[in-house]
Amino acid sequence: MNTVNLNIQKWSLSSRIFHWISAVLLLVTWTMIFLYSNSDNSWYIGLHKAFGVSLLFWMIARVINRVITKAPPPVLMPRWQQLLAHLSHFALYALLIAMPIAGLLMSVYGGRPVDIFGLFQIPVFVTPDRSAARFYNDLHTDIIWPMIIAFTLIHIGAALYHQFVKKDNLITRIK
């Protein structure tokens, strides 16, 4: 049934800010690794790491906000869709926390501190270990990265489905 719900309740302002800044941080982080991959300019990898660590701290704050901020009532949809929505959101949160942790561990196990925009460095706080660095590299690039892409596309696809197929105005909740 295609109906427009004009009484849709939005997420709190803080939740909406966390959502959109998370998306921007993720996009900037991806852009920096793309630029680095196509130029080998170490400035881009440094920015990739700094934005990645920023995303980690942002996501931790976002989880705290999510725990203390009341969610709006759910939009009417079948129970299986609600369950998939909750699972995919949980997966995105977990992946957006795991990704920068794996990247940070890859760097420090590789014996490289992580510079945060020239303001401070996260030092090498473990004994460098090439096999551990390779493990975290593989986790960061071969496992978590494709999962983030997949869940991001699922998230965007579901939002577009609700907006243009179901026409239930779901996107209004996060604008």
What descriptors fit this protein?
single chain, mainly alpha, 175 residues, disordered N terminus, 69% helix, 3% strand, elongated, two-stranded antiparallel sheet
The total of helices stands at 4
Please provide the count of β strands. 2
Rg over alpha carbons: 19 Å
Give helix % range.
55-70%
SSE pattern:
HHHEEH
Structural class: mainly alpha
Average pLDDT over all residues:
94
Q: What is the beta-strand fraction?
A: under 5%
Q: Low-confidence segments, ≥5 residues, pLDDT <50?
A: 1-5
Instruction: Please state the overall shape, judged from the principal axes of the Cα atoms.
Output: elongated
Q: CA-to-CA gap between the ends?
A: 24 Å
* Strand order across the largest sheet: 1-2
Summarize the structure.
The protein is mainly α. It is built from four helices and two strands.
Task: Give a written overview of the molecule.
- Strands 1-2 form a two-stranded antiparallel ribbon.
- Helix 1 (13-37) runs antiparallel to helix 2, helix 2 crosses helix 3 (79-109) and helix 3 (79-109) runs antiparallel to helix 4 (130-166).
- The protein is elongated, with a radius of gyration of 19 Å.
- It is mainly α.
- Strand 1 (114-116) and strand 2 (120-122) form a beta hairpin.
- 69% of the residues lie in helices and 3% in strands.
- It contains 4 helices and 2 strands.
Detail the topology: elements first, then pairings:
Blueprint: H1 13-37, H2 42-68, H3 79-109, E1 114-116, E2 120-122, H4 130-166
Antiparallel strand pairs: 1-2
Helix pairs in contact: 1-2, 2-3, 3-4
